[in-house]
Write a structure and sequence with these properties.
The complex is a heterotrimer of chains A (about 240), B (about 250) and C (about 250). Helix content of chain A is about 65%, strand content about 0%. Chain A has 11 helices and no strands. The radius of gyration of chain B is 20 Å and the shape is globular. Chain B is about 80% helix and about 0% strand. In chain B, helix 2 (about 20-40) packs antiparallel against helix 3 and helix 3 runs parallel beside helix 7 (about 135-160). Chain B has helices at about 1-15, 20-40, 45-75, 75-80, 80-85, 95-125, 135-160, 160-175, 180-190, 190-205, 215, 225-250. Chain B contains 12 helices and no strands. With about 250 residues, chain B is an all-alpha fold. Chain C has about 250 residues and is α/β, with parallel strands linked by helices. The chains are: A mainly alpha (about 240), B mainly alpha (about 250), C alpha/beta (about 250). At the A-B interface, helix 1 and helix 3 of A face helix 3, helix 8, helix 9, helix 11 and helix 12 of B.
């Protein structure tokens, strides 16, 4: 029996083993499946990951996160009085499937920290801290953490300044922009609010926010007009 | 070399004329079109979803094709006895196997390239991503296809049953995506026997994480040294499987 | 000088099914010589060892005991196959190719020099009467056409030794006549021809010598002088030499 092919096989396999440490050292490491938060989608995620479809699993999880935040996910309902109860888990699910999914951290943290009736800044910070650890290439996480800290302290000026600094970041989610626009509006800074909503309208990637942007633009313009009207000195009666 | 070329050429032609392969390509196009629809759910991450789903669909179709084709590659020629005629000519058995394997890889690679080109053009047309990274993702997918094809060839010759070879190929395919998980479980395991078994499995099974640029795309540009090491790994692992296939094939009588 | 020499060749087939090993005898100490330039007929019942003997000559099987020598080289030897032409009992051709592609493949495998290949392919296809079907797929060929395509691949490289396994089985009388003419044409050009057959009347028309196989052994050899001009001599010798091994009894006419 010829043994040459066997010898070649052993040598080739040894080479394959020898090159593995280099590959593992330089490879992008993903969190293990066991780190995924407990959701009804464990089988879906495990099935896709075992087929080598991790990025696609993260994309699907992202679409489900959006559906949930729009109130359209029947499998996950919120406890009474606790809106967006599962938002942190669903956000972390996307992030642990693909740690470089910047938008997932920012989107979940934005809602948790700034949405009306939610106000769970600690959960938002937890999500952003994970982003800092698992997605070191993205620089905006510490900025948002600082902004949340200022919000908790009631220092709105510093919070706004930090949020403004992220506007030029291409990864800055549209939700963060709309949050900033709402803060401007509540502070009576209508020109700045109009400018942010205008930028949202110009952003082709933010199409789902356009109807809200149009409504807000109309509303803020009306507010501006009424303020101007009330600021004008009263007309003198004709003599 | 001349014999490898001749066998490569007829194998490639055979696959190109094979309706199963054409069906795969058609399925790929349907998947791409489906991706366009599905990605609409992802709102402003539509480009990312379109990219991920397209790359994933291309790779899955290529992997299914290569497993299906290589599992049948030699067994069908034994069944139809056309291998008789080839081997009664001055053809070394490893030349025959090499020509058949490379011809199959060439045909699947051409299909992967065609689907990749269509996907890339679609992304460009819609103004999304692309860059030179796409080529890196394509090469990684091709490396995975080469390793999986060589493994399926070995399994088909060692098991001599198409169904068993197909089942084991799928098993290794899944195991190949779990190497890191296996090592993770081995690290946590207190049982020395289980730990050793898991580690042996994680080292012996192909580790598809070495070709996983597609899933790591959004983390940044491909590392050229990682890519080069991946190419060495693909050649070495596929080479080992191929050499074992030759060892088994040389013992066969027809 | 012998073109083929079997020296005490034994072949035992071992098959394992569900853990049970079964053995069957293909050849049992076969001693046989085929001289250069002669037409030698291998006669025998089904299971007598004719096809096993041919597969040992072609290196498709390995002898369990003894030696097979072909054109002065001990088999299996890939190099010597360049000097042999082989047509199996059925045309085991890849049906997805055209007649031209098929013959081009075998010309390349048989080391026909590339510059001469195309002309040789066309002239050989014309010689076997398939000049009009060069670019037709083999899947569209009739059984007779496939048999001719198979003969063409056996002769494309102008071999010294031609081996035909059951060349007239299933052919119409006109085709049988053509095969007979072809064998005599080869003999006239100094080629050695070995063919196996059940058909005693064909064998006696073209052979210089015959060997009768029974139960894997050479039961008898005869030269042309022993049957020429003696009606039924070969048939009677055959009936006397062989014993049924297929477990089927005689047809009883009482």
């Amino acid at each position: 029996m010829r043994r040459a092919p066997l010898a070649v096989a052993v040598a080739a396999f040894a080479l394959a083993l020898a090159v593995q440490p280099v590959l593992r050292e330089r490879a992008r490491a993903f969190p293990p499946l066991s780190s995924l938060p407990s959701t009804p989608y464990v089988l879906q995620d495990a099935g896709l990951v075992s087929g080598g479809l991790r990025a696609a699993a993260a994309d699907l999880a992202w679409a489900q996160l959006l559906q949930y935040s729009a109130g359209g996910l029947d499998t996950m309902t919120d406890a009474p009085g606790r809106p967006y109860d599962h938002l942190k888990d669903l956000g972390l699910r996307v992030a642990r499937l693909d740690p470089s999914f910047h938008r997932a951290y920012l989107y979940a943290a934005g809602i948790l920290a700034w949405f009306r009736n939610v106000d769970r800044p600690d959960e938002a910070v937890e999500v952003l801290r994970e982003g800092m650890r698992a997605d070191p290439g993205e620089s905006s996480y510490p900025v948002y953490i600082a902004a949340i800290a200022f919000k908790k302290k009631g220092d709105t000026d510093k919070m706004v300044a930090l949020l403004e600094s992220t506007l030029s970041d291409p990864h800055s989610p549209v939700e963060m922009k709309t949050i900033l626009a709402n803060v401007y509006k509540s502070r009576g800074e209508y020109e700045k609010a109009l400018s942010v909503w205008g930028a949202v309208l110009d952003d082709a990637g933010a199409a789902r926010e356009w109807p809200r942007a149009r409504l807000q633009l109309a509303e803020i313009k009306a507010l501006r007009k009424s303020r101007r009207a009330s600021a004008r000195p009263p007309a003198r009666p004709r003599q | 070399m001349e014999t490898i070329k001749a066998v490569f050429s007829y194998t490639f032609r055979e696959h190109v004329r094979n309706k199963v392969w054409l069906g795969g390509a058609l399925f790929g196009l349907v998947m791409l079109a489906g991706g366009l629809v599905v990605s609409a759910l992802a709102a402003d991450e539509r480009g990312r979803v379109m990219l991920d789903l397209g790359l994933a669909a291309n790779e899955i179709i290529a992997l299914v094709s290569v497993v299906f084709l290589t599992v049948h590659l030699i067994l069908q020629e034994i069944e139809s006895r056309s291998v008789f005629l080839i081997l009664t000519h001055p053809v070394r058995r490893w030349h025959y196997l090499m020509g058949r394997f490379l011809g199959t890889l060439g045909a699947v690679g051409a299909g992967l390239a065609a689907m990749g080109l269509a996907h890339w053009a679609l992304l460009k047309l819609l103004g999304w991503g692309g860059d030179g990274w796409y080529l890196a993702a394509w090469l990684c997918s091709f490396g995975k296809v080469a390793v999986m094809g060589a493994l399926a060839l070995l399994l088909s010759l060692a098991l001599t049953s198409e169904a068993a070879a197909m089942a084991f190929s799928v098993f290794f395919w899944i195991l190949g995506h779990f190497s890191a998980e296996l090592r993770f479980v081995a690290d946590k395991s207190g049982n020395a026997l289980l730990r050793s078994a898991l580690l042996v499995f994680s080292w012996a099974a192909p580790d598809f994480a070495h070709f996983d640029y597609r899933n790591a795309w959004h983390a940044g540009a491909p590392d050229p040294r990682w890519m080069a090491a991946g190419a060495v790994y693909a050649l070495a692992y596929a080479g080992a499987c191929f050499a074992l296939s030759v060892q088994v094939f040389e013992q066969k009588e027809f | 000088m012998n073109a083929i020499r079997f020296q005490k060749v034994g072949k035992i087939y071992r098959r394992s099914h569900l853990g049970r090993l079964t053995e069957s005898v293909g050849l049992d100490g076969l001693d046989l010589d085929v001289r250069e330039g002669e037409v030698f007929g291998l006669l025998g019942l089904n299971g007598s060892g004719k096809t096993t003997a041919i597969k040992l000559i072609m290196g498709l099987h390995l002898p369990t005991t003894g030696d097979v020598e072909v054109l002065g080289r001990r088999m299996p030897d890939v190099e010597v196959l360049a000097r042999i032409g082989y047509a199996p009992e059925a045309a085991y051709l890849n049906k997805s190719l055209t007649g031209r592609e098929n013959l081009r493949l075998f010309a390349a495998l048989s080391r026909v020099p590339a510059p001469a290949r195309e002309a040789k392919v066309e002239s050989m296809m014309t010689k076997v009467g398939l000049g009009h079907a060069l670019d037709k797929r083999l899947s569209e060929y009739s059984k007779g056409m496939l048999q001719r395509a198979s003969l063409a691949q056996a002769l494309i490289h102008d071999p010294e030794l031609v081996i035909l396994d059951e060349p007239v089985t299933g052919l119409d009388p006109l085709a049988i006549k053509e095969v007979r003419a072809l064998i005599l044409w080869l003999k006239a050009r100094g080629k050695t021809v070995l063919f196996s057959s059940h058909d005693i009347s064909e064998v006696e028309k073209v052979c210089d010598r015959i060997g009768i196989l029974s139960g894997g052994r050479l039961a008898r050899t005869m030269t042309q002088d022993e049957w020429r001009g003696k009606p039924d001599a070969l048939e009677n010798a055959f009936a006397a030499a062989v014993t049924r091994t297929d477990g089927v009894g005689e047809i009883r006419l009482d």
